[in-house]
TrEMBL record:
Name of protein: Tetratricopeptide repeat protein
Domain Transglutaminase-like: 896-990
Lineage of the organism: Bacteria, Pseudomonadati, Bacteroidota, Sphingobacteriia, Sphingobacteriales
Record key words, sorted: Repeat, Signal, TPR repeat
Domain named DUF3857: residues: 690-835
Signal peptide location: 1-26
TPR repeats: 566-599, 600-633
Keyword Signal: yes
Membrane-crossing segments per the record: none
The keyword S-adenosyl-L-methionine is assigned to this record: no
Length: 1253
């Protein structure tokens, strides 16, 4: 069919063009559908045939792209770049396609380009019709090629065309642990002047400074100037415009970003991304004169911290006539201009294409790739999941998902998807590589060779990755001749491959002992390749062979090529220091400091150089600067003290002579009831002016008997994750004074050859390296009483006079000996000849009964709450998985209350996420990303609680975290501020009331708290500046833990027939579900019978039924019906029948044992977990029998328990009612004996019998 446009008006012509384009697009979809189906169902060869056949159709353009994608990750199918060039040549508007595929193997393979590729990018860089982003990207790509090829002058020509702003003043570092710094307000916005002083995250004064050099590719990279990890950093510049004008401000980043123009916030992106230039585009107004641009970059998960800013016209072309100054210039603030967000042109294009052609896979793929270039994880995942519904086993889609998971640091997603690829497409190159890697990991080199062979068939024997595998296999199999042969061949074929160059170098150096040839190999490679690793190797050869000038020249040449490389200045300084050329050493480290003035290590390095030159005052000043920047640099602390002529801090403490203490120790006969005698236990703590702290722990203990030997044959140093340590002494001291070293593995010590009468002697130091707000804080506890007797125990703290310091004893005050020594105050608490604490039944936890010294420099509980809020709150920001999970829960459910939403989320988490706490997977403090928890389906308490808060936030429900120290650690375990919590829960605010939720149990109903958790210590996590305080977990909103039973009993000769129904409410349901839910009916019956037989050995269960046992929406209550027969339970004496009422939870004499005098309280929470228990037993009096002795009504009450038994008779049925309620669960020591007498009355009442005749 032919069309003619003659005579059509302009408007009609436009309509016709659009119509024709859509017609062609629809025809292309129909033509290519079999090809796309083949490709996305993993038939790449078939897809290639079908796409090739379509090259003669109107679908040629899309077919060429299809062929490029077929070859993108499978080069055995052809050259992806070649197909794309054909597409590009016949595509009048290639810009969105270039953008989508820019970072893929289709367009970019390696930094150095082939002549063909270089010509292609040069052509792009010269086009006037492309979006300016693409032109800038092309110039950047060409520049990097020339940099890598050591053609620096050529590289500079191309970066100059990119139009980036390169003049910046910078300052930092500010706290951003767990992304906590993004929303904070900083003084940097209000203080642009050069003399402004800010306070860094370590409390150091920092100022604006202008770095002398920057990265050659025009990305401004904080890695050269700061320790950017977990930091917010700022940069400012002042752009001069000859006239007021509207322009586009374009920013690309690694990290989160905020950008202000003339102090007006124009960009705020909290999500940490690694994206490309021009990712965020805003239409803004430049004033005439100077305009201040302020950029905030935050890093906590991105792994990088950098940015690029361009000012362009609406086409992305750099605005001419602008200049920038790093130093402060007066500027006019902006308050009223309405900033416009400009969408990414490629995203807008493919979003429209997807909307117009929702059945065309190509548009989905290119849109996903476009999103991925901007690191838009959520959007990429969303679009990929749409197309995966149609092609669930597509290897190509799974490959994209693997890349996406890698960007999001989702290891589980990566591994799961890799396994899917291996299963569904085992001959795919990625699968073969994965199989190869797995075989190597398992040291199965036969299989590894098999998979390498398959790859060789696909790509040929000369392909680089194939040759690399052959080299590895030869090495694994220790076939040196084969390895040398393959290496020589590979090097000859690919002399630009660094791996092969390294092998060739090692062969010449280590095998042939030909140093000159080895040097020649590296020099040849380095003549036209920039590679610092091999440069360093060559330099070391020169140093090792006495040719220091040649080695030094390599370093100076590297610096000349890339003068921002701050680490090279430091390295060169160290080399000169070793050569005792202190002037040069000083020169180069000062250059490093000029680039990075706030990196503490360079100041310590300079201090050591000054010290070597006897420039004592200079050295002292540099160590002080270093410590202000890094308060926990203990090496710098020690060196500074030496320079200042101060004592070693350990010299302020008393010395302990272990051998003398052993000789003077009393005989074992003096301690007949004990297993171990502690001769000396001490801790000596130093808290420095900078806030850093270290501790020296000493333990000397004598083994008195075999139980003591078994307990103390192994000993572990008490070291936390934020501490380093040194084991100074670990030994056995025999009675004759002989010492036998222990076997030491990290913090664990094993005392071999330990015998009764020997002593163990342990001394170790720990150094505290807390991060963020806790970097300068100290907290600790020390027991002055415990389960062992001791002769001497002491705690000493040497605290700088400028450090606020608090201490408190949990039981009995011990007055310290306090002295003022130099810049410190020395506190020493000491006690001698103390017996061990004797265990008493149902006594509280040790921290509640021992005399514990608590120490802290943390000012208040609000400080802890703010610290953890910073640490965890950013993790609760809803990610893709969270949004999808909440949408799935709430979709279609209108009019839900906040409580209903929260309960649905609670049920979802507790049913689907399994509790798991494993150190290598989880941090002890920082929650996992909620997306990771949803993907892995496992998490610990802080992980599931943070997931709950995140899902509630997405659902519009107010929730927060609560830190907990559980009841079994004691209710007096945290009397001063510290971070010694061991659990995390969530808190809801609903209708003006607070609800506390435990999310680690699959069976616990909503708003229920187990009896063992009630009265745990809690701290609400928020960002309130003051007022935070510890509370005991006893919310009025929790469901009461209740058990009610109704039991009917009948006498059958000597047997007692029992029929019981009961229901359990709230946490009381948990035990029943845990024990019975997963069992078969037969196993449930057996489990119940075994339980009853523990009390009634002759019992036979005949019936067992549950209601609401399943973990469904009706979780609050579980109902149970049981029928059983207690054989021989009815006793006959003459004509009298004795019936014992089968109370289910009657009080027993064995519940606890007390003897006078009682030293400690009685903890009833270890015995009872329910708030209320009630039971009704109905006794059917047998025909012809009458009651001759019955229970008496009993009412007992004190401040701890209410107990009541009542009865009534109707005809031949007697109903007995028992009610038991715990009011307070901790009986003070001085009331325990009276309580014991009270409890005996309950025991007696519970064991009363009924006599019938």
């Amino acid at each position: 069919m032919q069309f003619t446009t003659r005579g059509l008006p302009r408007k009609g012509l436009l309509f016709f063009v659009i119509f024709l384009a859509r017609l062609v697009s629809a025809e292309a979809q129909n033509t290519l559908k079999p090809a796309w189906d083949a490709f996305l169902n993993n038939d790449r060869a078939g897809a290639k045939v079908k796409f090739t056949q379509a090259l003669s159709s109107p679908a040629k353009s899309d077919a060429l792209l299809g062929l490029a994608l077929v070859c993108e990750y499978d080069a055995s199918q052809g050259n992806a770049f070649s197909y794309f060039k054909q597409f590009y040549a016949q595509q009048p508007a290639p810009a969105p396609y270039l953008y989508a595929l820019w970072s893929t193997p289709v367009l970019n393979q390696g930094i150095k380009k082939t002549p063909d590729a270089l010509a292609f990018f040069n052509q792009l860089a010269q086009r006037q019709d492309l979006d300016g982003s693409l032109v800038a990207m092309a110039n950047g790509t060409i520049s990097k090629h020339y940099e890598e090829s050591l053609q620096g002058q050529e590289a500079v020509k191309y970066t100059a065309k990119m139009g980036t702003i390169s003049q910046w003043q910078i300052t930092g570092e500010f706290e951003n642990i767990s992304s906590s710094g993004f929303d904070k307000t900083y003084e940097t916005l209000a203080k642009p002047q050069a003399d402004a002083v800010f306070t860094s995250k370590y409390g150091a004064p920092v100022k604006w400074f202008t770095p002398p050099f920057a990265r050659r590719d025009k990305w401004f990279d904080y890695a050269y100037y700061f320790d950017f990890s977990n930091s917010v950093l700022f940069a400012q510049t002042f752009v001069n415009s000859a006239a007021e004008q509207e322009v586009q401000l374009r920013v690309g980043v690694s990290g989160s970003v905020k950008t202000w123009l003339n102090d007006q916030l124009v960009i705020a992106e909290a999500e940490e991304c690694n994206n490309d230039l021009d990712t965020y585009i805003r239409k803004v107004k430049l004033h005439k004169g100077y305009n201040r641009i302020l950029v905030q970059i935050g890093e906590s998960t991105a792994g990088n911290s950098n940015f690029m800013v361009r000012i362009t016209d609406e086409k992305g072309v750099p605005v001419s006539g602008l200049s920038a100054a790093a130093s402060y210039q007066p500027y006019t603030k902006e308050h009223t201009y309405k900033v416009t967000t400009i969408p990414n042109f490629a995203e807008a294009f493919f979003e429209k294409q997807v909307a117009q052609s929702p059945d065309d896979p190509l548009n989905y793929l290119l849109l996903a790739k476009t999103y991925m270039r901007s690191d838009k994880v959520y959007e990429t995942r969303h679009i990929l999941e749409k197309i995966r519904k149609k092609y669930p086993n597509s290897t190509y889609l799974n490959t994209l998902m693997i890349e996406l998971f890698a960007r999001n640091d989702d290891r589980t997603g990566q591994e799961t998807t890799r396994e899917d690829v291996k299963t569904s497409d085992p001959e795919y190159p990625l699968s073969l590589n994965l199989f190869y890697d797995n075989a190597v990991e398992k040291k199965n080199y036969t299989d590894a060779e098999l998979y390498a062979g398959k790859l060789e068939k696909l790509f040929g024997g000369d392909e680089e990755s194939v040759l690399e595998k052959k080299l590895s296999i030869a090495g694994f199999n220790k076939k040196q001749d084969e390895l040398i042969k393959v290496a020589e061949y590979a090097y000859g074929k690919h002399p630009e491959n660094k791996t092969f160059v390294t092998y060739k170098y090692l062969i010449e150096k280590e095998v042939r002992k030909n140093n000159q040839e080895a040097i020649s190999v590296i020099k040849k490679y380095l003549a036209h390749n920039e590679d610092w690793e091999l440069t360093s190797t060559l330099a070391q050869i020169y140093f090792d062979t006495g040719d220091a000038p040649s080695g030094l020249k390599l370093y100076s040449d590297a610096i000349a090529r890339d003068p921002v490389s701050v680490g090279l200045y430091s390295k060169l300084s160290r080399i000169y220091y070793q050569l005792q050329n202190y002037a040069k050493a000083e020169e180069y480290v000062n250059k490093a400091i000029q680039i990075a003035p706030y990196i503490s290590g360079y100041h310590s390095q300079l201090a050591a150089i000054y010290n070597a030159q006897d420039k004592k005052e200079n050295a002292i000043a540099e160590y002080h600067t270093s410590l202000s920047l890094s308060p926990n640099d203990y090496s710098a602390i020690r060196e500074l003290r030496k320079l200042e002529g101060k004592k070693d801090v350990q010299d302020y403490f008393g010395k302990t002579d272990a051998l003398q203490l052993v000789k003077a120790a009393p005989p074992a006969s003096a301690y007949p009831e004990d297993n171990v005698l502690i001769l000396n236990e001490s801790v000596q703590t130093v808290i420095y002016p900078s806030g850093g702290s270290e501790e020296k722990h000493s333990m000397l203990a004598r083994i008195l008997n075999s139980k003591g030997l078994e307990k103390w044959k192994e000993y572990g140093a008490d070291v936390s994750g934020w501490q380093s340590y040194i084991i100074e002494t670990a030994e056995v001291i025999k009675s004759n004074g002989t010492k036998v070293p222990a076997e030491v593995n990290e913090t664990e010590m094993v005392f071999t050859n330990l015998e009764i009468g020997d002593c163990i002697n342990v001394v170790y130091k720990v150094y505290n390296y807390s991060k963020g707000k806790l970097a300068s804080k100290f907290w600790s506890t020390f027991y002055f009483s415990h389960g062992y007797p001791y002769l001497n125990t002491s705690y000493s703290v040497l605290v700088a006079k400028n450090q606020p310091f608090s201490y408190q004893f949990s039981q009995k005050e011990i007055v310290p000996v306090k002295t003022s020594v130099d810049e410190f105050d020395l506190y020493t608490w000491k006690q001698e000849n103390q017996p061990g604490l004797l265990y008493e039944d149902k006594m509280p936890p040790m921290k509640d009964v021992a005399n514990v010294l608590h120490l802290t420099t943390i000012p208040a509980w609000s400080y802890v709450a703010n610290w953890y809020n910073d640490l965890a709150s950013a993790k609760a920001k809803p990610a893709y998985e969270v949004k999808e999970a909440v949408a799935g829960l709430l979709d279609g459910k209108k009019g839900l209350t906040d409580r209903q939403k929260a309960e649905m989320i609670y049920n979802y988490i507790t049913r689907n996420i399994t509790y798991s706490s494993v150190s290598f997977r989880q941090s002890g403090l920082v929650p996992q990303n909620p997306a990771t928890v949803l993907n892995t389906r496992i998490g610990d308490c802080k992980d599931v609680s943070t997931l709950f808060v995140s899902m509630c936030k997405e659902a519009g429900v107010s929730a927060q975290l609560v830190l907990v120290n559980t009841r079994d650690n004691g209710i007096r375990s945290m009397i001063l501020p510290s971070i010694d919590f061991n659990h995390c829960i969530a808190k809801l605010a609903l209708d003006g009331k607070d609800y506390y939720l435990e999310l680690t149990s699959n069976y616990l109903p909503f708003s229920s708290i187990g009896g063992g958790s009630i009265n745990s210590i809690t701290l609400d996590i928020d960002n309130k500046p003051t007022g935070s305080a510890l509370k005991l977990l006893a919310p009025l909103t929790r469901k009461q833990n209740v058990v009610e039973r109704k039991t009917a009993i009948k006498v059958d000769n000597e047997d007692l027939l029992v029929s019981e129904t009961n229901f359990k409410v709230a946490a009381a349901t948990t035990y029943t579900r845990e024990k019975y839910l997963e069992l078969s009916p037969k196993d449930r019956l057996k489990q119940m019978q075994d339980g009853i037989r523990s009390t009634y050995p002759s019992a036979e269960v005949s019936k067992l039924e549950f209601k609401n046992l399943e973990n469904t929406d009706h979780r609050d209550t579980v109902f149970t019906s049981i029928d059983y027969n207690i054989k021989g339970d009815v006793k006959k004496i003459g004509g009298i029948m004795i019936v014992t009422l089968p109370w289910s939870n009657k009080a027993l004499a064995s519940d606890f044992t007390v003897t006078a005098p009682r030293a400690f309280p009685l903890d009833l929470s270890q015995l009872y977990s329910n708030d209320t228990e009630s039971e009704v037993i109905s006794l059917q009096v047998p025909e012809g029998k009458n009651v001759i002795e019955n229970l008496e009504p009993v009412t007992l009450s004190n401040e701890f328990i209410d107990y009541k038994i009542s009865l009534k008779q109707v005809g031949k049925v007697i109903t007995y009612s028992r009610n038991f309620k715990i009011k307070k669960d901790l009986v003070p020591a001085d009331q325990v004996m009276a309580f014991n007498d009270f409890y005996k009355k309950i025991i007696a009442a519970d064991n009363k019998q009924v006599a019938l005749r």
